[in-house]
Amino acid sequence: MMTTDIFMQKHIFKIFERMHPMMTRVSSSLSSSSVGFVTNTTNSKKRLRRRNRGLASVAAAGGKNDSISTSSEEELFDFFSILSSSIETKMRKDFNELIREPILSGKPEELRDTIPVEKLADQDSKFLEVYLENESDAEKRRMEEVKVHYKEHLPPVGSFPRNTLLKPQSAIVFLHGANGSTFSFRRLLPLVAARVGVRSISIDRPPYGLTSRPMKTGEFAYSKRGQAKLMVQFLEKLEVENVILVGHSAGTNVAMEMALKMNELKGKESRLNVAGMMFISPAVFVPKPPSLNSSSTNSSTKETISPWSKQSNSMSPERLAKLFWFRTLINNDDYGLNLVRSFTRRNANQVQTGEGSYAALSTQAREAYTRPLAAENWDKALLQQFRASINGGGGFGDDASLVLECEASLDVNFVDVCCGEKDETTPINKARDLHDTLEMISLSRKQQQQQQQQRSLNTDSNNNSSSIEATTSGRSSSSPTFSAFQTSFRALENSAHLPMEEIGDSRDAFESYVVQTLERRVEENFVIRV
């Protein structure tokens, strides 16, 4: 293809990319291979050849040359054919999912094929009753018993040498992502317990798995804070004191909330402490971190201003419009329930037929991941979760406010992040942004601590009251509340969003990474030498 034609194509694509996000994928696929672009439109080319013969004869007879060659005209026609077809496909999909299924399906009937969660349990399933209350309900009229489903593996006796002790009531807790369950960690749980030597627990987060679906607490039980509070109360009832949180996908949001709000969430007598976190394919999206040097200082207060303070969540107009329509649907009981049911059943069908990232799932895995759809109130609980997510502003766009929370309140010893290089659900570049952001926060704290130590040394050497007063003033305004923490990042080769469900070398490499990393973190944080 001619250079001018490529230039023209790219600019046309940029115009349409602003109109519709699907054009980005069309642009990358067509721009990468002009040969494939023309080859995939054989029928339209045949129609154009007949037209081009007429144009050529006119030109031979002395007609004016067009500014665009016949080959370029042909390719442009092909492009617009593909463009219109793509738009039509997208519009049909949006119409079916956002209008026909939720609105035109009529009033939803009560499901009659659901059963209590206990009847869906496995032989090694365990349940623990936890009382959850909506924090906005001062009279506690919306308190509800939640039957939390979990599985655990205990380490073998003598996992550590005689001259070492493990901190009391230590555990490694696994939190699954959307549509996941304890089943997601069926291989990791016994492996970690045996190799790392620490009690390993995986928990079903409502509205997934076999944990009962709370209804009285409304959206709260399915919000990040409600989920974090439920997990904290569960661990307190198990008398866990020292914990490492391992979150996969959306489970990382709950882990982060637990770490940030632990002092608010735990009971007065609780000793529960989050030593650190491991994030697998994290669905925690933050803005691309700015340069550490971009932080500034307010000269009047000597207060360090965060480089993230000027950033805000941003979304395209089309995404905002879809968000508004989606919120309208889910806040209507009938439309929302229809939307949730059709969405979930469509996803379950993809799992059962092995589409996309589910292609490698075994028959056992497909059955396990769709079994919770037989649990009582699965549809109403999912509706509450959708409402909690969208009404609370979670899950859409990059969250700059979360970064500010981490700067102010994150109190852990380490955060390890890993993501598959082929992950399309939580792209690896977003996982890198999260790691780099956390690394910058830790580095900023370390630099502030060093500056504080230097001021203290200067004060001691000068030994005068004015210096002491100035130092005290500076310390109160700029010193970090918490210490620096360790971070690491690992890109998982040949892995996608579900590394625990892959087969062969990629899964082995993932499991080896998890075990080795946790061995090191347990040694650093849980082991006491005597």
Question: How would you describe this protein?
Answer:
Residues 1-42, 295-305 and 467-480 have low confidence and may be disordered. Strand 8 (296-298) and strand 9 (303-305) form a beta hairpin. The protein is 49% helix and 13% strand. Strands 1-2-5-4-6-7-10-11 form an eight-stranded mixed sheet, with helices on both faces. A two-stranded antiparallel ribbon has the order 3-12. A two-stranded antiparallel sheet has the order 8-9. The relative contact order is 0.11. With 530 residues, it is an alpha/beta fold. Helix 1 packs antiparallel against helix 2 (22-32) and helix 5 (70-103) crosses helix 10 (333-353). The protein has two domains: 3-103, no CATH class; 117-289 and 395-451 and 476-529, Rossmann fold.
Summarize, please:
The chain has helices at 3-19, 22-32, 34-39, 42-60, 70-103, 188-196, 224-237, 251-265, 317-330, 333-353, 363-370, 378-391, 400-409, 428-462, 465-478, 505-525, and strands spanning 126-132, 144-153, 164-166, 170-175, 199-203, 242-248, 273-280, 296-298, 303-305, 414-420, 486-492, 527-529. The protein is α/β, with parallel strands linked by helices. The chain has 2 domains: 3-103, no CATH class; 117-289 and 395-451 and 476-529, Alpha/Beta hydrolase fold, catalytic domain (Rossmann fold), CATH 3.40.50.
Q: Mind sketching the topology for me?
A:
Elements: H1 3-19, H2 22-32, H3 34-39, H4 42-60, H5 70-103, E1 126-132, E2 144-153, E3 164-166, E4 170-175, H6 188-196, E5 199-203, H7 224-237, E6 242-248, H8 251-265, E7 273-280, E8 296-298, E9 303-305, H9 317-330, H10 333-353, H11 363-370, H12 378-391, H13 400-409, E10 414-420, H14 428-462, H15 465-478, E11 486-492, H16 505-525, E12 527-529
Parallel strand pairs: 4-5, 4-6, 6-7, 7-10, 10-11
Antiparallel strand pairs: 1-2, 2-5, 3-12, 8-9
Helix pairs in contact: 1-2, 4-5, 5-10, 6-16, 7-8, 10-12, 14-15
